[in-house]
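Batch job 17 of 40 flagged for manual review because the log was empty.
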Amino acid sequence: MDVRNFALLCSEHHAEAPDVADAESFWAWIDYAELRDSPDKWANASDEVKDFLRKHNIQIGKETRESLPFFSAVKGELKSLYGWTDNDLKKADWLELMDEFHRVLDTATGRHFSIDKKASTYAWAYDIALRRIRGTSSSVIRESP
């Protein structure tokens, strides 16, 4: 019963949001999703407002995101939210990373409203696992390059 556990989300974002024990990481994901999806808020604006926005290079309406295979969605989130690079993915010691990933997944994540697995939860757990292996902070999200 902690106020940080309460977030008003649309059903789409609720289904995507990470089920993690780290409130800071959860709210960082909310900020990320808002930036990613915010152009949708102008979809019902008047034509006059839309013309003004276009003149100022503001995107109107979110682009349809293609449905990706699960791990491709996880990799996309690792790159866009946590700043992972292709090099991070190639250099990882996957045996060690998977052991730590499952420790994180088992101890610091949950299943919310029977949604079994989410790319956002898995991306968070991979990032935390890699940070633990490298001995870096687990509560700070890396800046995107």
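Reviewer: the log was empty due to a logging misconfiguration, but the result itself is present. The helical segments are 11-16, 23-37, 47-55, 70-80, 86-91, 94-108, 119-134. Unflagging and moving on to job 18.
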